[in-house]
Amino acid sequence: MAIKWIRIDDRLIHGQVATSWLSHIGAEQVICVSDAAVENPVQVSVLKMAAPAYTVHVFGVDKFIRVYANNPIKKNTFLIMGSFSDALRLKEGGVPIDHINFGGMRTTPERTISYDHIICFSPKEKEDFNKLADMGVKIEYQVAAYDAPVDMKKKIEQLKR
């Protein structure tokens, strides 16, 4: 499998991803999986411009599951999505996910469960986070590539205190 890194960050591709994470993991391409992004041609263009040195593909969740099933990924790939719900759908759809790097899901009206300004969940996202963890997926909180990764459940427990 050439998926080298799986990250959840609701900003998808942004400056820190483009300038730090992609070189940190030796990515050759970025696959962004987001139903909302793929429906917005302007956002697709912005995502592709955000990492100009890389091939950037943008797929909806279901389409990526179909594409992945029929086309082995050969390039070192940085897979990024915006929520744990998308990650769970990918895993249940047959995309092998055993480790997730979490960079942030910010406050929105739907995200009523908040531990700090970048660790926020809707009730469904929180449920899906727990399902992934129960499936044995290692989930680590790590905002920047130079930060030490922290177990996500431990991070949430620290913030609850």
Task: Report on this structure.
- By secondary structure, the chain is an alpha/beta fold.
- It has one domain (3-160): Fructose Permease (3-Layer(aba) Sandwich).
- 40% of the residues lie in helices and 25% in strands.
- It contains seven helices and nine strands; from the N terminus they run βαβααβαβαβββαββα.
- The chain has helices at residues 15-25, 35-38, 41-50, 61-70, 84-92, 123-134, 152-160; strands spanning 3-9, 29-33, 55-59, 77-81, 99-104, 113-116, 119-121, 138-141, 150-151.
- A seven-stranded mixed β-sheet has the order 3-2-4-1-5-8-9, with helices on both faces. Strands 6-7 form a two-stranded antiparallel sheet.
- A hairpin with a 2-residue loop joins strand 6 and strand 7 (119-121).
- The protein is globular and about 40 Å long.
- The model has no long low-confidence stretch (mean pLDDT 95).
Defining key terms:
two-stranded antiparallel ribbon; alpha/beta; Fructose Permease; 161 residues; seven-stranded mixed beta sheet
Which helices and strands occur, and which strands form pairs?
Layout: E1 3-9, H1 15-25, E2 29-33, H2 35-38, H3 41-50, E3 55-59, H4 61-70, E4 77-81, H5 84-92, E5 99-104, E6 113-116, E7 119-121, H6 123-134, E8 138-141, E9 150-151, H7 152-160
Parallel strand pairs: 1-4, 1-5, 2-3, 2-4, 5-8
Antiparallel strand pairs: 6-7, 8-9
Helix pairs in contact: 5-6
